[in-house]
Specification:
- By secondary structure, the chain is of the alpha+beta class.
- Helix content is about 35%, strand content about 25%.
- It has six helices and 18 strands.
- The strands form four sheets. It has a seven-stranded antiparallel β-sheet with strand order 5-8-17-10-11-12-13, with no helix packed on it. A seven-stranded antiparallel β-sheet has the order 6-7-18-9-14-15-16, with no helix packed on it. Strands 1-2 form a two-stranded antiparallel sheet.
- The longest helix is centred in the first third of the chain and has 42 residues.
- This is B30.2/SPRY domain-containing protein.
- InterPro entries: B30.2/SPRY_sf, ConA-like_dom_sf.
């Protein structure tokens, strides 16, 4: 019996599947592989069109958009019923709403900028599959809905006293909290589990495998906390960053844009700069990272530095990043070596 798989295109009568799509997992013949790629390109163009539409809306005049916001209309209607008694409270509420909306839009612009950068990189490298489309669509829908009406904001119109006649409730989350880091792409024998917060090496043999963060970082300071859940013999892992424009590698620490630390035994402690291995001693790094350690990585884009803080040892290490070698945006990069080794984002 032949082990050859037929082309997944229902219109293909005789084609043999030779190329598999990593997104939908279907196998196509050469002709229909090209057609499938064209279908993906058309789907991407639809996403880009929606992206550009939202960008135009974000670039509209802030003052006019905020002053005509539906929440302010609610306040105006309430004020007209209560006359002079509520005028002072209404004015205070307007000011608070406007400030919250300004802060909310600022956060949305930051999230949108991150998405814009990722779309540009993925489009240029043609590195995308159907699951990426689902994630991008969901993010565009979220931003679009937040522009119209922030989910964390509501107005309580309770006539209690002149000092508390209208209450503005806001649960504003910072951009870094609302879009917390998650694992995304992998290279090698790593699988991502538990809502993309756990990365596990599943290879049968000891060999490098890498996992990358979803978020892109170009400005501000960002804290990423993780736990070393499993680390055989406390021997090896890499924690750091690469430029988002760099290609994926199993041994990510050799990437020319890689900066970070090798978590290992004290006899082989390494600091990586531009993908080059350096003795950690000259950088004040002792390599003391073990199973169950909780670590905090700080990506300070404004200062062009990355920090590593080990809660167990209470030690902090810093690396200065050459942005000509590792241009923005950055992304989190982790490499595991032994089967069963695992890292969790917390």
């Amino acid at each position: 019996m032949s082990s050859q798989k037929p082309c997944a295109n229902p219109k293909c009568e005789k084609g043999i599947g030779i190329l598999a799509c990593q997104g939908c997992q279907r196998v196509f013949c050469k002709r229909h592989t090209t057609e499938h790629h064209e279908e993906l390109s058309m789907e991407l163009e639809k996403i880009i069109y929606e992206h550009n539409s939202i960008r135009n809306r974000l670039q509209q005049n802030d003052t006019l958009e905020i002053l005509t916001h539906p929440l302010l209309k609610q306040i105006d209607e309430w004020e007209s019923k209560s006359l002079k008694l509520v005028q002072t409270a209404a004015e205070e509420a307007r000011n608070k709403i406007q400030q919250i909306l300004i802060e909310n839009k600022s956060d949305l612009i930051k999230d949108f900028r991150i998405l814009t950068q990722e779309l540009a990189i993925r489009r240029a490298t043609e590195d995308y599959v159907e699951t990426d489309f689902d994630r991008w669509k969901a993010e565009l829908i979220r931003i679009k809905e937040e522009i119209k009406m922030p989910k964390h904001l509501k107005i309580d119109k309770d006539f209690i006293s002149s000092g508390d006649m209208i209450k503005i409730t806001s649960q504003v989350l910072k951009s870094s909290q609302r879009s917390a880091e998650k694992f995304d792409q992998v290279c090698g024998y790593i699988q991502v589990e538990d809502n993309r917060r756990l990365a596990v090496h599943y290879g049968l043999n000891a060999r490098d495998a890498s996992v990358y963060g979803k978020r892109l970082y170009s400005n501000g300071s960002h804290n990423i906390r993780l736990k070393i859940e499993t680390m055989q013999d406390n021997y090896w892992l890499f924690l750091g960053i690469i430029s988002a424009s760099s290609s994926l590698r199993e041994n990510v620490y050799t990437t020319k844009s890689a900066y970070g630390w090798g978590g290992t035994n004290e006899s082989s402690k390494f600091v990586y700069l531009e993908g080059i291995e350096n003795n950690g001693t000259q950088y004040g790094y002792d390599g003391d990272i073990r199973k169950n350690d909780i670590l905090e990585i700080v990506l300070n884009c404004d200062q062009q530095t990355i920090d590593l803080f080990n809660i167990r040892t209470n030690k902090k290490y810093e690396i200065t990043v050459d942005i000509h070698r590792c241009p923005f945006p950055w992304k989190l990069a982790i490499s595991l070596y032994y089967s069963g080794d695992s890292v969790r984002l917390i």
